[in-house]
Amino acid sequence: MDTQGRGRAEHIDPADQWVLNPKTGEYELRLGPSAPQSAVPRSRGAGAGGARTAPPASPGRDVPSPRRRPTGPGEPLPGRRGRRPEKKKSKAKKALLWTGGTMAFVLVAAAGAGYFYLRHLEGNVKTTDVGDAGAGSFKKDEAFNILVIGTDKRTGEGNEGYGDAGSVGHADTNILLHVAKDRSNATALSIPRDLIVDIPDCPTKQEDGTEKVVPGLRGARFNRSLGEGGRDPGCTMRTVKETTGIQPDHFMMADFNAVKTLTTAVGGVKVCVTKPVNDKESKLVLPAGESTVAGEKALAFLRTRHSFGNRGDLDRIKAQQQFLGSLMREMSSGDTLTSPTKLLKLAEAATKALTVDEAIGKVGTLKDIALELKKVPTKNITFTTIPVKDNPAEKIPATVVVNEVTAPQVFQMIKEDVSFTEVKQQQVKEKAEVAARLKGPKADASQVRVRILNGGAPAGSAQQQLSWLQTQAGVSKSENAGNAGVTQPKTTLEYAPDQADQARRLADLMGLSGAAMKPGKSVTNAQGLPTMTLTLGADFKGAGVKLNAASVKTPDLDNKSTADKVQCAS
Question: Which residues does residue 211 pair with via DSSP β-bridges, in sequence order?
């Protein structure tokens, strides 16, 4: 007998059987005091298949028993059951409560909602074989990129009036989600559907197992990378790689139903507009200020373009990003995380709405992804859009192209796993280093003794820097010690504690950060005197050029926002 069936037989509300264990922070299935406990609860480290039987409930435990309804005359006492008929082994597995985002992004943004067992969810998730367009498996210890696709396919009840008539499902909403290796931050990069790109040739798997190559397109809208000509999500992944140089590892896709079912399941999402909205196209009607939207109204908010900004797709993307941040805050709230009823509805709605690549199609793998996403603080999740400009080939701009000046830095930062947000931990650490190493008295340049090693800078850099220090900076007690023998990415300065004032002077002359200053030991120079060691790394910019003169700076982005901030669409 399944959970719901057992609950009905014993007059127990099924929702009451899922209780929060205050010791573990997880939901567990609890039966009556005399009934054997379900093998549902597992440790956080358990895999998808190995369950651990929970101990019987006892008066001394902190976990409450479920509430029971009174029994009628002649009915068995609560907790007393006859022998159950034999049945096949259950296929119940640990299932992911995927919640959050617009279109498909609702399925990933709030992994913090938790997870528990639901018997029928395993078959809900649909998969697509994308071949070598993505990774063969999910790697928990690496940075990863998930392409989230929302299609305009008009399937589902009440969706006949949306999207393009007869559409096979274009890539209408697209977000490349990059999650940092250390899980300190994430970037959600929106890709405009009207972006002009080159769509590469795309191998697709057919139902009979054969492969069909769909010819590519030059100078086409990005949304045509899906659906048209039989293109599958793997084709959209290949187009992202072609356009940005960033390799998507996996994809997640959903249609209009995802927004309607998930926002309803969570009880609505708060949105904010600076002026009243009465959009005839999307049928969205909202007063100025804050409102709560769910179902059809939530979908209308995400589809609205004529009431925001310049009435284009880029301003619709801004509204979508604001919606995402609000939904993530709602999903991480206590009202959602402590409600078994909400979590059950969300699990059902999310898994039914989801299509993914085969590499992450197992519920256990989706659970692993959710747990990794849960580690990222919402304040360090940045929403932004590919930098674009109006298409110069059009007299009346209707499409956009990649901005070749600003976009490359954005793409490179994602490829190199660089955060778009200032992570608080890093700020605190850097400030402490600067305070301890850079502040304090500085020796006169003539008293600074240093030897210079080349540890990754261009050939001849040590001699060039020595000449500059002696002739331009007054550091006459310096010498060239040749190559370091090993290469290093960053320039460092090692010094003994009693040389801190000399180190601060040299750091000031060269623009060294506190992190570049390495308290340690001194060495003996040719005159037998204690000397600091300056090792030029790959970041060395040239003789006399301060290392902090051209520090990496987050590019100015028109619509950058983070998930923890409340914003209003205008």
Answer: 205
Q: What is the DSSP letter of 53?
A: P
Taking only the tens place, the pLDDT of each residue in 4-45 is 444 444 444 444 445 556 555 554 555 444 444 444 444 333
Sign of the alpha-carbon torsion through 158, 164, 168, 173: negative
Place of tokens 């057919």: 206
Q: How far is CA 513 from CA 4, 383, 431, 503, in A?
A: 61, 29, 10, 11
Distance CA 18, CA 342 (A): 12
Tokens representing residue 411 in the block: 């793409």
496-545 pLDDT tens trace: 999 999 999 999 999 998 889 999 999 998 889 999 999 999 999 899 99
Burial annotation 14-25 (CB, 10 A radius, 16+ → b, else e): bbbbbbbbeeee
Grouping H, G, I as helix, E, B as strand and the rest as coil, residue 149 is strand
Retrieve residue 134's tokens.
Answer: 């993505």
Tell me phi and psi for residue 464, to 5 degrees: -65, -40
Six token digits for residue 495: 């010094």
pTM (predicted TM-score) = 0.57
Alpha carbons 63 and 21: distance in angstroms, whole number = 6
Instruction: For residue 181, report the phi and psi dihedrals to the nearest 5 degrees.
Output: -60, -40
Q: 319 phi and psi, to 5 degrees?
A: -65, -40
| 6 token code pair | 């057992």
Residue 137 parent element (H or E) = none
- Euclidean distance between CA atoms 567 and 570, whole angstroms: 9
DSSP string, 277-337: EE-TTT--EE-SEEEEE-HHHHHHHHH--TTSTTSSHHHHHHHHHHHHHHHHHHHTSHHHH
CA distance 288 to 278: 11
Question: What size, in residues, is the chain?
Answer: 570
Predicted pLDDT at 176: 95
Give the chain's residues under pLDDT 70.
1-122, 153-168, 309-312, 331-340, 342-344, 347, 422-431, 433-435, 549-567, 569-570
**pLDDT number for residue 154:** 59
* Angle ∠(345,347,353) on CA atoms, nearest 5: 100
Q: What angle do CA 225, 229, 230 make, to 5 degrees?
A: 85
So what's the pLDDT on residue 68?
44
